[in-house]
Amino acid sequence: MFSNLLLLALFTGFGIGCLVAALKAALAALRLWARGLRVMGVVTPRAPADPRIGRLVRFSDHFGRDLLLDPGRYGPLCGLPRAGRSVPVVYRRDRPTDARLWHMCHLLAPSFGWFVASTVVFGTGVAVSH
């Protein structure tokens, strides 16, 4: 009895933590959508020696500095075009190094992942407790 209650409490706590992370990521995407600066970037290929897959996006911030955005694991999800094509980029005025692609999948992918994790954890907690 006590072990089931302890497992339920642990899973519930972890699930609430994942849900808070999902809400935080969704609010960050909403802030970028509402107040972020939007610029156009150019898709560039990675260096041949770079073992990571995907392409990079080169853009200029409001000071005129050239920055490089690595979409990372969200790049294939967003469907980046081939090298040389333009894509929209959004960033906070005070943090241009934390830019994101102006694409719904790229903006909401972290919050969706945290939401799925919280749902799985809550479901596991309920299944284990009964």
Unreliable spans = none
How much beta, percentage-wise?
15-25%
**Global structural class:** alpha+beta
Oligomer: single chain
Choose one word for the global shape: elongated
Give the fraction of residues assigned to helices.
40-55%
End-to-end span in angstroms?
10 Å
Mind explaining what this structure looks like?
The chain is an alpha+beta fold. The protein has a five-stranded antiparallel beta sheet. Strand 4 and strand 5 form a beta hairpin. The longest helix is centred in the N-terminal third of the chain and has 34 residues. The protein is elongated and about 60 Å long. The model has no long low-confidence stretch (mean pLDDT 85).
Describe the structure in brief:
This protein has helices at residues 2-35, 75-78, 104-129, and strands at residues 37-44, 56-60, 66-69, 86-92, 95-101. The chain has 130 residues and is of the alpha+beta class. A five-stranded antiparallel sheet has the order 3-2-1-4-5.
